[in-house]
Amino acid sequence: xxxxxVSDNRHSPYRFSVEQYYRMxxxxxxxxxxxxxxxxxEICDMPPIGCRHAATVSWLHxxxxxxxxxxxxxxxxxxxxxxxxxxxxxxxxxxRPRRDRYSEAHPTARDTLLVIEVSDSTWLYDREVKMPxxxxxxxxxxxxxxxxxxxxxxxxxxxxxAFVEQTLVQPxxxxxxxxxxxxxxxxxxxxxxxxxxx
Length: 198
Prior knowledge:
- This protein is of the alpha+beta class.
- It has a domain at about 50-185: tt1808, chain A, CATH 3.90.1570.10.
- The protein has three helices and ten strands.
- The protein has helices spanning about 20-25, 50-70, 125-135; strands spanning about 35-40, 40-45, 75, 90-95, 110-120, 140-145, 150-160, 160-170, 175, 180-185.
- A six-stranded mixed sheet has the order 3-4-5-6-7-8.
- The N and C termini lie far apart (about 70 Å).
- Mean pLDDT is about 90; it is low at about 1-5.
């Protein structure tokens, strides 16, 4: 009788740890300029950053810094250590201030106040893989921005490995970050500039 390799414990896939992932980069198994992230032990390629994606992330970064002042730290496209086998790189993170300014260790789920993913060609991956991952490890709140169809999904209240609350905001306006009780004006999120060359 044939066995199903998916359910057969003898054929479980190997999962890399964060330490192994970093070691592979150090010895050149992963190219220095490769854009990758570690998701539940799997090394996942990240697509090149398009113009709309980069411009949106940059604009959001400025809005967050203006809104939070010294009450939080804003990180852009930096590692988030969720577990021994998961270290994604969200587009933006709003973090609790820490004495070492995150120079001694990457932020964890406990440090995060808000995670933001900006999607151009990666919406399905961000929604079906990364949002559940953030919820599973207790990230308080996550936003998923689709620059293609100009939508913003807000996820919150992680429980049982999923976000219990989900809100579609269209068009976006001033939004509150509950953990800080601050408002961030996103009215111009999808029309902050002219992409054409004049």
